[in-house]
Amino acid sequence: MEETKRTELSTLGEFGLINRIKGNFTLNNKESVKGIGDDTAVLEYSDSEYVLLSTDMLAESVHFDLSYVPLRHLGYKAVAVNVSDIAAMNGIPKQIVVSLALSNKFSVEALDELYLGIEAACKNYKIDLVGGDTTSSRSGLIINIAVTGTVKKEEITYRSTANVGDLICVTGDLGGAFTGLQILEREKQVYLTNPDMQPDLEGKDYIVQKQLRPEARMDIVHEFKELKLIPTSMIDVSDGLASELLHICKQSVKGAVIYDDKLPIDNLAYETATEFNLDPITCILNGGEDYELLFTIKQEDFEKIKNHADISVIGHIVDKAKGVNLMTKSGNAYPVTAQGWVHF
Amino acid sequence: MEETKRTELSTLGEFGLINRIKGNFTLNNKESVKGIGDDTAVLEYSDSEYVLLSTDMLAESVHFDLSYVPLRHLGYKAVAVNVSDIAAMNGIPKQIVVSLALSNKFSVEALDELYLGIEAACKNYKIDLVGGDTTSSRSGLIINIAVTGTVKKEEITYRSTANVGDLICVTGDLGGAFTGLQILEREKQVYLTNPDMQPDLEGKDYIVQKQLRPEARMDIVHEFKELKLIPTSMIDVSDGLASELLHICKQSVKGAVIYDDKLPIDNLAYETATEFNLDPITCILNGGEDYELLFTIKQEDFEKIKNHADISVIGHIVDKAKGVNLMTKSGNAYPVTAQGWVHF
């Protein structure tokens, strides 16, 4: 072998990696409307609707820790995070294919538990499991799911279509999954130190559940259709609010202002952040895995959502030149920055 | 934790596992025509054609050994094996999404090599890469690809539709990938014993290539369309001829007779089998990864393929009661049995 250059993957980062891959591929088939760069690919197989296609891989020790993640919840979550990508396109999920690599530490009963979670998610989201692949692995568990969905052509929501003046909205509350993870990690350490101790999750149910068994916000997608509301742009919050807002701004070539006192955080997440000496706003901006929807709407659509208990207006879209800023109550502006999750 | 029963995955086998999963899932969406049980799922998003969806996962140390598999070939093969599933439905591949789990032993340059192979396959098979996911893993490389394709409704070929009297055909030759693997494994052992030795692959190009960089037989699928030939059933040969023939017979509720002197084997594969004291017929029946197409046609379609240099007629379909048998030149009948690949 000749001597070759070696560049560490860690120097690229997640988005550098995506851009490097994307750069080499062009779309050539007429059925390929949109490739890499949004929550899902967009395919055209009929006149009236698009088919959506996305895939997500979860790896043991990277995305989940089986010392506190029940396999049934993991199966559910693996489906939910894929459905969340379909939701972010304003689509309805239809089918999944599930690939598993698992080592022989897993028994048939363990596999059954995992599939019970997958089955529960399929029922809840009205999806059919239509195929998959299973192989052994030398270490641990890897789950890959590919999901399909459909959306009427006139209802699809991309990341790149926010306009100046649009209101920025988010569903539910943020920071819960991240603070839930802190609790689970703490109790794991306690247990490792003293295996006789029982984990103390008392009163932390909501945020622990947000971490272990998140829901894709299909309820909101269905409500949009009832309200005849089509967001001007949308993305799901998997990597933290900051990262997702920057995606929308970058792809829409716009700026944004969001207000710290408008950011929705659950009381329990707030208290838990404080308990861990974490800034709650940082948990919202950079904590991940909430799987809420971040979207923009025209100002005239405000009436449709203003009384919605589960939607918060957190700011608005501005010119690109104004940047992406967080305004504090005291009137200071801080640029929003984010890296997403860095695995390598 | 209460005491729970532990059943080893190895007790199920690959097909036991598939049946166990399949048993818990039903199809509920009108767009889901066919789920688990054929080469791909079959989805209905338009009036005139079906959308095909399949997924395949390749794991290091299980499906490939990076000590002799070049990453570029691996990328190509990972796409080809997925395309082969689309070919087996008589379909045209359209898009792929690629998920990778890789440890930090892989450099950016290694990743580039892998994607060069993926890109070459996309060009060759006229597929668009439209998305994916990349994560770190604690050990080794896992590649999952999901592929979509289309097929006119009247041209789809299932496994379950072979009829008594149909001719059984296979493309190309069989046993090459398996004998190629024997060569590569032998040279690896030689190298491990004496790292100064160069691998001796002299004259073995064809079978080594069949193992390292197989082609999906899209050429044949396109020829079918030119010949206006629609096979009565079809499957791709990934696990060995025996296993695939049994799939067709079981799902069609039929039997079959195949003739040992009709089985296509390349001279080099034959010689190599002999060199390793392997029975060439066993290499054909139980060696895997040839990615040829096994299909059945009506007798009246024989004229269309009888002079085709790359299609062999190896037998015919009979009543289920007659079983699935291999007839030898000497007139003896041996029941065909197979397990597919057992990973666990």
Q: Which structural traits does this protein have?
A:
homodimer, 344 residues, alpha+beta, seven-stranded mixed beta sheet, six-stranded mixed beta sheet, 10 helices, 13 strands
List the helices and strands and how they pair.
Two copies of one chain form a homodimer.
Chain A: H1 13-23, E1 32-34, E2 41-43, E3 49-59, H2 71-87, E4 92-102, H3 108-125, E5 128-136, E6 141-152, E7 167-171, H4 176-193, H5 205-212, H6 218-227, E8 233-237, H7 241-252, E9 255-259, H8 267-275, H9 280-286, E10 292-297, H10 302-305, E11 311-318, E12 324-327, E13 333-335
**How does the helix and strand content of chain A classify structurally?**
alpha+beta
Query: Helix proportion of residues of chain A, in percent?
Result: 25-40%
> Helix-strand pattern of chain A, N to C?
HEEEHEHEEEHHHEHEHHEHEEE
* Uncertain segments of chain A: 340-344
Distance between the termini of chain A: 26 Å
Quaternary: homodimer
What gyration radius of chain A follows from the Cα positions, in whole Å? 21 Å
| Largest interface (CB < 8 Å) | A-B, 84 and 84 residues
Characterize the largest beta sheet of chain A: strand count, sense, and whether it forms a barrel.
7 strands, mixed
Overall shape of chain A: it is: globular
Into which percentage range does the β-strand content of chain A fall?
15-25%
Global mean pLDDT of chain A:
93
SS field, number of helical segments of chain A: 10
How many beta-strand runs of chain A?
Answer: 13
Strand order of the largest sheet of chain A: 8-10-7-11-9-12-13
